[in-house]
Amino acid sequence: MSQQLRILVVEDDPLVKQTLAAALEATCGAQVWTAATGDQGLALATLHKPDLILMDLDVPGLDGQEVCAAVGERSDMIGSRIWIITGLTVDDDTREALGCYADRIIVKPLSVATLSTEILEQIPPLGPPLQWLGD
């Protein structure tokens, strides 16, 4: 029996965030959490250990690069993938995000149908979050 995908969307635009979350729940059958700031995103990532984090680079608080670096340095989140979603062009900032644990950059506007298909093809559910022995 396959596990349900767990996806975290970190996006400060409320319409984009809610539309993306609803579409991923419907098309991927995913459990989706959303955050509007980098700080909220990092807290939710740490708590839920999602299979995939869809991260906008330009969010309030911790920016997308800082969140990527913080997630990438956690041994208990080694299986979480980070895909950057940005309205920015591919420049030094987006390239730097790839260097700090991000796996992919997706430029807005994006097709939710295409994104959902790629998620289902490329992101296997990890199963329950890792637990330390003795917890």
Number of domains: 1
Look at the structure and give the CATH class.
Alpha Beta
Structural class: alpha/beta
Q: Find the CATH topology.
A: Rossmann fold
Count of runs of 4 or more consecutive helical residues: 5
| CATH architecture classification | 3-Layer(aba) Sandwich
Tell me the radius of gyration. Answer: 14 Å
Description:
Helix content is 40%, strand content 19%. With 135 residues, the protein is α/β, with parallel strands linked by helices. The chain has a single domain (6-120), classed as Rossmann fold, CATH 3.40.50.2300. It has a five-stranded parallel β-sheet with strand order 2-1-3-4-5, with helices on both faces. α1 (14-28) crosses α5 and α2 (38-48) packs parallel to α3 (64-72). The longest helix is centred in the first third of the chain and has 15 residues, at 14-28. It starts with 5 loop residues before the first strand and ends in a 13-residue tail after the last helix.
